Amino acid sequence: MKATQALSFLILIWLIIANNCLAGNSEITKGEKVYQEYCNDCHGIKGIGEDPKNPNGGFNSENEFVAPALNGTAHTWHHHPVFLFEQIKNRKVNKSSPMPPFSDILNDEEIHAVIAYIKSLWPENIRKSYDERFKE
Ligand code: HEC
């Protein structure tokens, strides 16, 4: 009887973990679709940046904005999650940036999903220290 209970308990724990992993992955998959549709053209495939030789972005020789890399090679992971959310929703910082605010295009869930996708592009050590640094 005890063994059966222990087994049931283990199965329950396994189901909870599996369910969380699937939920996490489906958020990333959803975010990837959002990214490909709305962000890829400027920030490059898998967030490599508009000019991968210059991941930090900035300006080109014509003084036009160059979209930075989002994949962990530039400084996106230095920003607080609230900043990332606001940047995408309301383009908070640079009002002259070509990046449009997405408040009329993406709902909050889609914005969180695209952030989850961007974070999935970061090296694991960066992602872990980011989550540690900004945990609520
Ligand atoms: C028309 C080009 C363009 C599009 C489309 C675009 N961006 Fe940007 N994005 C930029 C530029 C240029 C910057 C740098 C200037 C600034 O801060 O606005 C930037 C900055 C950012 C930053 C801040 C990065 C950092 O390291 O400081 C994030 C995060 C970001 N974009 C995410 C997104 C996401 C997510 C999408 C799609 C939903 C998107 N962008 C669509 C051009 C674009």
3D structure, described in words:
- Helix content is 54%, strand content 3%.
- It has a two-stranded antiparallel sheet with strand order 1-2.
- It has helices at residues 2-38, 40-43, 81-90, 108-120, 124-133, and strands at 58-59, 65-66.
- The chain has a single domain, classed as Cytochrome Bc1 Complex, Chain D, domain 2.
- By secondary structure, the chain is mostly helical.
- The longest helix is centred in the N-terminal third of the chain and has 37 residues, at 2-38.
- α1 packs across α4 (108-120).
- Residues 38-39, 41-43, 57, 65, 67-68, 70, 74-76, 79, 84, 87-88, 91, 93-94, 97-99, 102, 114 line the site of heme C.
- Heme C binds at residues 38-39, 41-43, 57, 65, 67-68, 70, 74-76, 79, 84, 87-88, 91, 93-94, 97-99, 102, 114.
- Residues 1-23 form the signal peptide.
- Keywords: Heme, Iron, Metal-binding, Signal.
Features of this protein?
136 residues; mainly alpha; Cytochrome Bc1 Complex, Chain D, domain 2; two-stranded antiparallel ribbon; elongated; binds heme C; metal ion binding; signal; heme binding; Cytochrome c
